[in-house]
Specification:
Elements (H helix, E strand, L loop, with lengths): L1 H19 L2 E5 L4 E5 L6 E9 L5 E11 L5 E6 L2 E2 L6 E2 L8 E3 L4 E2 L3 E5 L6 E11 L7 E10 L4 E5 L6 E2 L10 E8 L3 E8 L5 E11 L2 E8 L8 E8 L4 E8 L2
Parallel strand pairs: 2-12
Antiparallel strand pairs: 1-3, 3-9, 3-10, 4-7, 4-8, 4-11, 5-6, 5-10, 11-12, 13-18, 14-15, 15-18, 16-17, 16-19, 19-20
Length: 251
């Protein structure tokens, strides 16, 4: 009798493990993007969906939670294309279109494209959920947040510089705030991003922000991004310059 019960338990465990491994879905970009009101573009949050089963599966993508300021738009994109912002399910229920993925197929084009109203502050929160059409209760989901604020904590120190540079943050170690200084040899579109030890983007401080030639100081508060103690890397990227440095957060 004990052997029968043990065999039954093993079968249940095996079936549940197979069931839970039919697909994988996770965010591949920063969870939170914070920019100031000069941002007049679209913020992109990227995800990856993979069919890990041995059979063809049809999937759906759904905005499981949506908080949008009036006038902002959030579009779901995938290999089927980018959908209209008012569509919260892709493919829409009742549509003949299918989001079909072969065994082992990966769709790295999944994204939430968030477009705010220019020069208006606000916060948008989208929870994107993925699941097989055959079983909506077997889902995975992740969150993306766009903050538009009056100031992102950046100040120009000087307008006269000779070369590109990224300085060591100060203080370091820090808790919860530190300053990051950098110099631009010419007018540039600037990205300033923070990564964790696994190389995952955890904070987008500047996202294609247009800055003129000069030296700048960014006041970075780790609490704005819910970061825990640990080693992080901050990376400055322009069209002509890339530099990365390490910093230590101790709480």
């Amino acid at each position: 009798m004990k052997k029968v019960i043990l065999l039954f338990c093993l079968l249940i465990l095996a079936s549940s493990q197979t069931y839970s491994q039919t697909f994988d879905f996770y965010r591949t970009s920063s969870k939170i993007i914070t920019v100031d009101t000069s941002f007049q573009s679209t913020a992109y949050f990227y995800f990856k969906l993979k069919n890990t089963s041995t059979t063809i599966q049809n999937f759906k993508l759904v905005k499981a939670y949506k908080l949008l300021p009036i006038g902002w738009e959030a579009s779901i994109c995938c290999k089927l294309g980018c959908m209209a912002g008012f569509l919260d399910t892709v493919p829409p229920y009742g549509s003949p279109d299918k989001y079909t993925m072969a065994p082992g197929e990966v769709d790295s084009s999944v994204s939430i494209d968030l477009t705010p109203i220019p020069h208006i502050t606000g916060t948008a929160i989208i929870v994107l959920r993925a699941f097989p059409e055959s079983n909506p209760s077997n889902y995975k989901q992740d969150t993306c947040i766009l903050n538009i604020v009056n100031s992102v904590g950046i100040n120009q120190i000087s307008s006269i510089v000779k070369e590109y540079d990224l300085k060591q943050n100060y203080p370091n170690p820090f808790n919860p705030s530190t300053s990051i200084e950098f110099s631009l040899q010419k007018n540039s579109d600037v990205n300033l991003v923070v990564y964790d030890m696994q190389g995952r983007e955890v904070a987008s401080l500047l996202n294609n922000t247009k800055l003129s030639q000069g030296s700048y100081k960014y006041d970075f508060n780790s609490n704005d991004f819910n970061l825990s103690s640990g080693v992080y890397f901050y990376k400055l990227v322009t069209g002509d310059f890339i530099s990365t440095k390490k910093m230590l957060l101790i709480k």
